[in-house]
Amino acid sequence: MAKQSRSPLTVLVLAAGKGTRMRSDTIKLLHEVAGRPMVAHVLEAARGLKPRRTITVVGHQADRVEQALTGESDAFVLQKEQRGTGHAVMQAAAELGKARRGTVLILNGDLPTLRTATLRRLVNRHQRSGAHMTLMSAVLDDATGYGRIVRDEKGGFQRIVEHKDADAAERQIPEINCGIYCARIDKLLPVLEKLRPDNAQGEYYITDAVHYMLERKGLVEAVCHDDAEEVLGVNNRAELARASVTLYGRHAAALQERGVTLLDASRTWIDPRARVGADTVIYPDVYIEGASKVGKHCVIRPGCRISGSTVGNGCEIKDHSVVLDSKIGNDAAVGPFAHLRPGTDLGAEVKIGNFVEIKKTRMGKGAKASHLSYLGDAEIGSGSNIGAGTITCNYDGVNKHRTELGAGVFIGSDTQLVAPVKLGKGAYVGAGSTVTQDVPAGALAVSRTKQTNIKGWVARKQKRRDKGSK
């Protein structure tokens, strides 16, 4: 048979099923694996092939699935009734027909550990061979419940036999069908029209399409993959956890290859989308989530969580700090026990210390807030020093207001800055003050009352206490 030339690729992801074994109100494919819905990992692996189009078949909780895959899939097709894998592919026939020719790669949405390289080998093998369809298989120690791959004496593919239909000899076959298919679109569409629900479940099976191709003397091949865990679906919570461990482990190994030190990779969870620079040291029990970026020569100490954030070079995030949707400049230090909430923007060499909480605040180069402070909706100039116990009172019960500090401002301990308020360059605020008005540059603001010492007060109080106890 003549080899098929390279042809445009369409990816079809089946994401309509509920997945009852998850015991959840949320459909299986929306459960997260390593920080993302498992179906999103499948789309990501497929996009690595640079397909012409990606089409996703949705059904249960279709709106939620489409929302989760915004920007990931080019088109969505609704399968109102879930009547088998063949039925799902049939719903996409019109979309596939737009391509007329080319290759379709059919994937289940519950394969989060699939690698792009694995899919590329399958597609390349299919297109080089000229086969009408190529399916992926794997070998299991216990193949109970799976459809078996039956081969001839020369190892050629003959058919798929479902476990319930297999005889004693066929049930001894360890090679199983993984449910991953490559097919020529012009050969697949005609056999989809022949599918019938002639079985006890009343469903349309994609495996029947395989057999119809064989009846038409079409070439069908089965390619055995050597990593069964990668190509078997997630069906329950235990498998969900194992898939996350697999993806975190792969990314950890890749980071180590690039010069990142993970003191205990098994206790470090770094999202596969996250990037970490060389010579950064990450301690155990650290979570780095989303598409976060951590620069070179950083130290991330135990118990930290960094999500959707950018950390510059040479930074130290000290123990048990939380960094959410924030930016941290080069050579900054944060923590321990600090909380950077969304919208925080720390300049280079900024120091944020113990139990400091910051929200929607920008701090200029070298500014410091070392102890027990809340800074919200603020602009803090370079070189400013924020004393312990400082609070920006940003909320009046109805609206949020901003606090603005110029460069080199010094705020004494236990100060309240009642927004909206501005402090000019180099201004000072005495400890224990409540600032409700703007402070000019270079001025000192003091709002506490004059201290009064009452001599002998303690002795008189003790005398009254002693008299009252008699």
Describe the structure.
- This protein is α/β, with parallel strands linked by helices.
- The chain folds into two domains: 9-231, Spore Coat Polysaccharide Biosynthesis Protein SpsA, Chain A (Alpha-Beta Complex); 237-399, Hexapeptide repeat proteins (UDP N-Acetylglucosamine Acyltransferase, domain 1), CATH 2.160.10.10.
- Helices cover 21% and strands 29% of the residues.
- It has nine helices and 39 strands.
- Strands 13, 14, 16, 17, 19, 20, 22, 23, 25, 26, 28, 30, 33 and 36 form a 14-stranded parallel sheet that branches.
- Strand 4, helix 2 and strand 5 (75-78) form a beta-alpha-beta unit.
- Helix 3 crosses helix 7 and helix 4 runs antiparallel to helix 6 (185-192).
- The N and C termini lie far apart (114 Å).
